[in-house]
Known about the structure:
The complex is a heterodimer of chains A (158) and B (265).
Chain A: H1 13-20, E1 39-45, E2 48-53, H2 63-74, E3 81-86, H3 98-106, E4 109-110, E5 128-132, E6 140-145, E7 150-155
Parallel strand pairs in A: 2-3, 4-7
Antiparallel strand pairs in A: 1-2, 5-6, 6-7
Chain B: E1 4-5, H1 14-39, H2 48-76, H3 82-87, H4 107-126, H5 134-163, H6 167-179, H7 193-198, H8 206-223, H9 244-253, H10 255-259
Helix pairs in contact in B: 1-2, 2-5, 4-5, 4-6, 4-8, 5-6
Amino acid sequence: MVTAAAASPGISAEAVAAALADVADPEIPAISIVDLGIVHRADVAAGRIEVELLPTFVGCPAIEAIRHAVSERLAMFGLPVEVSITFEVPWTSGRITTAGRARLRESGFAPPAEPEDVRCPYCSSPKVAMDSAFGPTLCRSLFYCRACRQPFESFKAV
Amino acid sequence: MTTIRTSLAVGVPPDLRAPLDELLLSMADDEFVIGFSDSEWTGIAPLLEEDVAISSLAQDELGHAAALYALLAEVRADGRDADAIAYDRKPDEYRHARLLDHGRGDWAMTIARRYLYDTADGARLEGLAGSSFSPLRELVDKIRREERYHVMHATTWLERLAARDGEPRERLLAALDELAPDAATVFSPLAGETRLVENGVLAEPMSVLEARWRATITPSFVHLSLPMPPAAAHPDRGRTDHREPFSWLWTEFTSVRRSDPVATW
């Protein structure tokens, strides 16, 4: 959730949130960090921009790259930017927006679901099998679709 | 290392500082040591999928360790960061469980260790799920969601090895036999655990958490006809008296840091 605070003149929390909507996730560039649900808070207060991010996994190695990308994207506002990470609430797969889930499917990733509920992102078949719970990144599992014979990845449900 | 913003706003009461330090250090060292041990498989695991899986498990555990060390650094507030705690200690200053001190071993040893550790860690995390120390409770909430996949992985392999007579089962039995005296050392009593329980940081003493762990794994062990792990041979030394393979691992994981302690990344 993006919350608005007392904004500095001319820069609203909404403008910051809109800018963050173009920061792509470095591991799945098709989806933005806002659609991925990892932006916990983006406030403009006392002449500075503060952003708090929720890592998808505690050990997510992309988080530094994301912090850097957020700082770069918000530099245009001309205010000091502080990007921190927090576990105040857990990131869960339910935080991915409806638009984000659609973008994942379009890019060949099954949106997060319990393993028995995963559907093939190419043909929507439920006739899929998990090859491995662990995939190329911490947040993805490997599946195979028996209907269209296509291997694919699914976001882990956490 | 990344700064984590916690809700540690009011500080820790002075009389809880040492017990909390001990708890966080034991948990962080456990995750750090098993994570590093598992990373020894990267590139040489028995199957490609398992190479990816064990490397992901290692990465998860090192991530948990980094977050726990960062929280500990915040509790200590002595200017030393998570990296300093993780790397700038002598081998006898680490407080991980002796269960993790048996060297990488073969795949059956790795699975036996992972199963015993993941299930024990699960019982410990359950004992922290309602912790009164909110930064730890928040982190545990997140970690438990990931550990679910670890237990699934270890359970699948334990069943696979146990069910196949001949070499797979023999190797698994040999690994469980070697680990037996140290199997329960995750629950070695902490000096300050009474304070932790009184203050609601930890729900129950380690001995009670150990009983819960045993109740959880007994059905699988009975079903697979595997010998249940005995009580720890020396619970009082379960986190202090490290075995030789740890000296080797310590030399490995501190080698870069020791080569240039002030390097920045």
